[in-house]
Structure prediction request, 438 residues.
Amino acid sequence: MINYELALYIMASIFWSVIIVMIGLSWFYVAGLFLSMKRIKKAPHSDKYTKFAVLVPARNESEVIKNIMRALTAQTYPKEYFDVWFIVEKDDDPTIKFADEFGFKHFVRDEMTEQRRTKGFALQECIRHFKAKGLVYDAYMIFDADNVMDHDYIEKMNDLRQTGVEVGVGYRNFTNINTNWLTSGSAILFTYMNSFTSKNRTLLFKKALIAGTGYYVNADIIEEAGGWIFTGMTEDTEFTTYCEYHNINMCYYPLINFYDEQSPSLKTNHSQHVRWVWGFMINRKRFIKGGKMHNATSKAVNRAAIFEYRVGIVPFAVACIVDILLLIGAVILYVFSLRQDPSVSTAFLINIITFAAFLYFIFAIAAVATIAHNFNKLRLKWWMIILTVLTYPFYFLDLLIAFLHGLFVPRVRKTWTPIKHTGKIKDKRAKSVSKNEK
Prediction:
């Protein structure tokens, strides 16, 4: 005979204990609600110029590549101070022809194997090429083939670098946020990481979260590391880890925009989530040694930054997993109680509602806070705002499904699948820069 009263007491105790511990360990995100209102200072204009190498891995991207080429052509930064390199895999890639037409450079990879297909290896080979040819750059700026950027993006990044920031990244905006609930959900996830996680790290620790592209890194940092060593499934996470542990001066700089295309496909989103989740987990203890230790902050602040980075979303993730298990248990006991002791079934039903409401609330409030804080930048349509808030918990829970998928099917953790880009830009601001309209 099941002791339902004891089961209810245990469930309630676990639930509230987990919430208290989660809040206690998530001080960084609680503080973020207040820090998000503080502005990042504008870097003063500098007349000193950085020699940038703008690197664009462009494997089979010729159908969309002209958008970023037009945006780069329109940059206000002096043309003699940046070279644009498109990295391809074959000599007959049409991207080469387009690059020549726009006056840009290209690099054809010559170390291609099935194990070296990631973006990190493409960057590694191209930077090795620079060294072999005696090409010297002050910093590397990384973009994807589907990106476009504000006309003054490189100019503003130079201003930021001249203040002593060794790694800088702008505001990630989106070319197709209003397409469906997946594109809006993905955009909100990235925007949350920008507005709260990355901004908080900049204000507190002189650190930032590198998620994808749109960033520059000083060339000497890559030289100190022994070249571009970040070649896994999530090279951005690997690079962020290296910067955290080596106390490199980083900055999230939301005063300029680059634009990114989000996939409207559930299958593609799930594949990305598997890669992100397991890339983050696998790389948490890598890239912590080797290379020079920088002095962006004091040792005490750097230790606090590393602690935050190591703990990160773990309390939140554990709380969600425990809550889901409690929810499943409550549903099972509710069904049994209907058959054996209907008098306590109402209590289990209340627990079911409580556990489900907790999951929905924390995801929905994150979506609402993110949209409210970035309302003018995101430009979500009113009906998409409603749809996003309603569906965001389900979008976010796919990260848990991705974890389970990688746990029980290990091969998917190492399966690199290229993302198909359409090149269709729907955001008016992104469209203007992709059409070279100043």
Remarks:
- The chain has one domain: 1-438.
- The first strand starts at residue 52 and ends at 57.
- The chain has 16 helices and eight strands.
